[in-house]
Amino acid sequence: MLWICRPSNTDSRPFGGIFDIAGKEARLAELEQQINDPHLWNDPAHARKVSQESARLRRVVEGFKRLESDLQGLLELWPELMAEEREQMQPELERAGRELEDLYHQTLLSFPYAENAAIVTIKPGAGGTEACDWAQMLYRMYTRFAERHGFTLELIDLEPGAEAGIDYAQFIVRGENAFGLMSPEAGVHRLVRPSPFNAQGKRQTSFAAVEVMPEVDESVDIQIAPEDLRIDVMRSQGKGGQGVNTTDSAVRIVHLPTGIIVKCQVTRSQQKNKEMAMNILRSKLFEIEYKKKQEELARLKGEARPIEWGSQIRSYVLDKQYIKDHRTGEMRHDPENVLDGDLESLIWAGLEWKAGRRETVAAAEDE
């Protein structure tokens, strides 16, 4: 929780600082001019973005001003209060602290497409069967995280491992600021544990890569020529159920100019699978174009690294009961809770790092 303290004499506003309220108010004024333009809705997609940004900024500005007024009153009154009266005010201070922290979190979710759904891909790396099992553990972790936040998780593709775990998983997380919250998870995740696949319980290190990108819809101008696509239909693989793997409903789309391959096989409807695959392809092509235009894509998807030792963003060391994020230095000593979806502290630390509010820490030595 953020600490609430009396501002220094050099502060131009009592609690302004990192919230940049003046900048947000200036941006709000610009957006108001656009909203008042009768021609704005000639472009519905742009109009929606303007309205959404305006509403988000207004919530932050109005919430900050209300909280600022409340806290300023409390600080002015505090010296005159008796000890018993101060004790009675403690719940109010704690409430204000929670509201201030929530406003601070909103400033960490102000980057492009933070409000979009997140397309997440998990791939096992070095480690064989161990890595496939680790990839499945990550898939469960993100499933539980989505459940904790009331998000929905829409499975796109899931390929079982040869002996255990999964060889590939791709899914969409939908909910408020889903991409913003999931974005710090992009990178290589390292697991260290006594192996359940070894009779001697030998200590094993495994790796899996997590990719995260924002979902984009047809309102984003991504030109895909029909002649640039090869679309194959096939019978779904895996456990199936309810007829999924008894019909030729799986769809694989190859974008010939880039070589991008997208597959979807999770519904009985070939048309639905095709629509979902096209949406994934559109998002991938958008990401490529965005990368050409803006270097900051590295902050959106995370730096691409080999799925092996030395490239991990986070280590999960189960026999020593800790998890460490190597970018932020954030430590947790309850790995069972983290693997059950309790990721909040790691995610907020990651967002601070992405926003440049945390220094990158040195990579960990081998445990």
TrEMBL record:
<dbReference type="GO" id="GO:0005737">
    <property type="term" value="C:cytoplasm"/>
</dbReference>
<dbReference type="GO" id="GO:0016149">
    <property type="term" value="F:translation release factor activity, codon specific"/>
</dbReference>
<dbReference type="InterPro" id="IPR045853">
    <property type="entry name" value="Pep_chain_release_fac_I_sf"/>
</dbReference>
<keyword id="KW-0648">Protein biosynthesis</keyword>
<dbReference type="InterPro" id="IPR000352">
    <property type="entry name" value="Pep_chain_release_fac_I"/>
</dbReference>
<keyword id="KW-0488">Methylation</keyword>
<dbReference type="InterPro" id="IPR005139">
    <property type="entry name" value="PCRF"/>
</dbReference>
<comment type="function">
    <text>Peptide chain release factor 2 directs the termination of translation in response to the peptide chain termination codons UGA and UAA.</text>
</comment>
<feature type="domain" description="Prokaryotic-type class I peptide chain release factors">
    <location>
        <begin position="235"/>
        <end position="251"/>
    </location>
</feature>
<dbReference type="Pfam" id="PF03462">
    <property type="entry name" value="PCRF"/>
</dbReference>
<comment type="similarity">
    <text>Belongs to the prokaryotic/mitochondrial release factor family.</text>
</comment>
<protein>
    <recommendedName>
        <fullName>Peptide chain release factor 2</fullName>
    </recommendedName>
</protein>
<feature type="modified residue" description="N5-methylglutamine">
    <location>
        <position position="242"/>
    </location>
</feature>
<dbReference type="Pfam" id="PF00472">
    <property type="entry name" value="RF-1"/>
</dbReference>
<dbReference type="InterPro" id="IPR004374">
    <property type="entry name" value="PrfB"/>
</dbReference>
<keyword id="KW-0963">Cytoplasm</keyword>
